[in-house]
From TrEMBL, chain A:
It is found in: Cytoplasm. Belongs to the SRP14 family. One of its GO terms (molecular function) is endoplasmic reticulum signal peptide binding. Heterodimer with SRP9; binds RNA as heterodimer. Component of a signal recognition particle (SRP) complex that consists of a 7SL RNA molecule of 300 nucleotides and six protein subunits: SRP72, SRP68, SRP54, SRP19, SRP14 and SRP9. This is Signal recognition particle 14 kDa protein. It comes from Monodon monoceros (Narwhal). It comes from the Eukaryota. GO terms for biological process: SRP-dependent cotranslational protein targeting to membrane. Keywords: Cytoplasm, Ribonucleoprotein, RNA-binding, Signal recognition particle. Component of the signal recognition particle (SRP) complex, a ribonucleoprotein complex that mediates the cotranslational targeting of secretory and membrane proteins to the endoplasmic reticulum (ER). SRP9 together with SRP14 and the Alu portion of the SRP RNA, constitutes the elongation arrest domain of SRP. The complex of SRP9 and SRP14 is required for SRP RNA binding. GO terms for cellular component: signal recognition particle, endoplasmic reticulum targeting.
From TrEMBL, chain B:
It comes from Monodon monoceros. Heterodimer with SRP14; binds RNA as heterodimer. Component of a signal recognition particle complex that consists of a 7SL RNA molecule of 300 nucleotides and six protein subunits: SRP72, SRP68, SRP54, SRP19, SRP14 and SRP9. It comes from the Eukaryota. Residues 49-117 form the SRP9 domain. This is Signal recognition particle 9 kDa protein. Component of the signal recognition particle (SRP) complex, a ribonucleoprotein complex that mediates the cotranslational targeting of secretory and membrane proteins to the endoplasmic reticulum (ER). SRP9 together with SRP14 and the Alu portion of the SRP RNA, constitutes the elongation arrest domain of SRP. The complex of SRP9 and SRP14 is required for SRP RNA binding. GO terms for biological process: SRP-dependent cotranslational protein targeting to membrane. Keywords: Cytoplasm, Ribonucleoprotein, RNA-binding, Signal recognition particle.
Length: 109, 130
């Protein structure tokens, strides 16, 4: 699993989208992250590295896994870029049939 | 669908104490494999037909335990399908779509959850529901 900076993650994510354009699935996972790098052993102390509450982990994979950590300082910028990326690339879905039909019926009336 | 979610929530609430107790069990097999089957009495993977029901249930599931819940997006351009799943490893909520109008809603929901996860504990951000 490759851990990247936010900007690199977005570039790699675009590349992953392009890779599975014709076939394959892309999985994106979002999870709250508390700064843990090592697993918590039962008998040792609970908190090893400094715990941070305000971060989230974002992973993407289509076989190759990439990941990034977003903290509260970067979230605004990252979120705008990330939302735009998702909206522009996920355009393979069918346009709303129901909406078109209701528009046509409204125009008819 | 609402009843299914209520049933699962009750299971989750009851099951939380059992999970804590079993978490101390030495056998990892017992903890990770058996626990899901202990709660297999009701539908554990409800698929939602409407976005409103899904987003409300998913928001509730996340707020119940923010550290455990995760959101998974699966996009297949070849099939033109998008699937969003919110789970805390006990309950799994799924919403599938092939409509372009849902992409914006799903992406907005995804961003809202991201903001929630990143917000500091003292400040609770109220989720805007569509």
């Amino acid at each position: 699993i490759i851990l990247l900076q936010n900007i690199c993650f977005l570039t790699e994510l675009t590349r992953l989208f392009q890779k599975c354009w014709l076939s394959g699935s892309l999985f994106i996972t979002l999870k709250k992250y508390d700064g843990r790098n090592k697993p918590i052993l039962r008998k040792s102390s609970v908190e090893g590295s400094e715990p941070s509450d305000n971060e989230c982990l974002l992973r993407a994979t289509d076989g190759i896994k990439i990941s990034t950590v977003v903290s509260s300082k970067e979230v605004t910028k990252f979120q705008m870029a990330y939302s735009n990326l998702l909206r522009t690339t996920m355009d393979g879905l069918e346009k709303g049939d129901k909406r078109n039909k209701s528009k046509k019926s409204k125009a008819a009336w | 669908a609402v009843r299914a979610v209520q049933w699962n929530e009750a299971l989750v609430r009851r099951g939380a104490t059992i999970v804590e107790r079993l978490g101390l069990c030495r056998s990892r097999w017992l903890r990770e494999l058996c626990l899901p089957f202990l709660f297999c009495r009701g539908p554990t993977m409800p698929q939602y037909q409407t976005w409103e029901e899904f987003s409300r249930a998913a928001e509730k599931l996340y707020l119940a335990d923010p550290m455990k819940a995760r959101v998974v997006l699966k996009y297949r351009h070849s099939d033109g399908s998008l699937c969003i799943k919110v789970t805390d490893d006990l309950v799994c909520l799924v919403y599938r779509t092939d409509q372009a109008q849902d992409v914006k809603k799903i992406e907005k929901f995804h961003s809202q959850l991201m903001r929630l996860m990143v917000a500091k504990e003292s400040r609770s951000v109220a989720m805007e529901t569509d």
